[in-house]
Automatic annotation (TrEMBL):
Domain PAS intervals: 69-141, 198-252
Catalytic activities: ATP + protein L-histidine = ADP + protein N-phospho-L-histidine
PAC domain span: 145-197, 270-322
EC number: 2.7.13.3
Cited Pfam families: PAS, PAS_3, PAS_9
Organism of derivation: marine sediment metagenome
UniProt record, GO biological process: regulation of DNA-templated transcription
Lineage of producing organism: unclassified sequences, metagenomes, ecological metagenomes
Entry GO MF terms: protein histidine kinase activity
CDD domains, A to Z: PAS (cd00130)
Family matches, as InterPro entries: PAC, PAS, PAS-assoc_C, PAS-like_dom_sf, PAS_fold, PAS_fold_3, Sensor_kinase/Photoreceptor
Keyword field contains Phosphoprotein: yes
Name of this chain's protein: histidine kinase
Amino acid sequence: TQDDAMRRMRKVAQGYPQSFEWLCKDHKDRLFWVEINLKLAIIGNEGRLLASFRDVTDRKLSEEALRDSQERLKTVADFTFDWEYWTGPDGRYIYVSPSCDRITGHEMDEFFKNPSLLREITHPDDLGAVEHHLDEHGKEGPGSAEIDFRIIRPDGEVRWIAHVCQGVYGADGKWLGRRASNRDVTDRKPAEDVLGDSEERYRMLVETMAEGLALGDQDYNFAYVNGPFCRMLGYTREEMLGRALMDFVHPDYKHIMEVQQAGRRAGEEGSYEFAWLAKDGHTIWTIVSPKGIFDPDGTFRGSLGVITDISDRKRAAQELAESEEKYRLLFATESDAILLAEADTHIIIDAN
């Protein structure tokens, strides 16, 4: 206000320099911020008021945006459904989300006052694993870590917690502690145990089947290969996962693979004979029975294939063909006359 301005100028006249920010309006009624510095200067034995002005609108807008951002982040953190916390390098809590009360039955202040509270509420059967996790991952280091464990609430109720944590670092790279997210998974834990048993049974079935099984993603890179298929081609699972199917195709069959891949994207199915190139360089003959995988909206997500090794059958057929060719050659070049007749009817069926 004008009164503020006059008060500051009187201060300057008394020998006290003034610095302040003022919201101003230009000739188009647009608002902008100005930093004003006032001081007294003696010029020609007379006191003069020196004033400097600097437009600080951008800085003020940035500060306001930062305050808004901080408020939004705090709102997001405080209203997360999961229980979030941040511990400093000394192991003490820097931040604890209000959800801790709903999940653990303990309020935020209890964690701030007692850094060991998490250990104290952990189920005795899980305490060893939790202490190992906290000791191992409570120090500086990259990456994240997970653990599931049980806690006991003050009312005696046992709850399962899915915990994941990772290091927190400042802009300068300085380690600032660990951030953790804790989700109450009590309701889904029994279903997970049943699902885990079911998945283990299916895994055993897939890994012990005689045929190879492979899953390709939408770009036809191997997302999964079972043991029999790995042994068929002579590679380890690690050598195959993530690599393109084309890397393992026999050179003479790359075009066929391109045609088949286009067919899967179009929803076509049907078994076909195919040749792969094993790690040691020999050809593996197979019958591939594929099926495309699509989202409910029809988006192609990959292809699943069952691969049956027919190399022995192909070699036997080739040996038979070679044997017949030798027979034909001997038959055609024999100097004596040779007749072939049916045993029952004595009808001649071939002659040289």
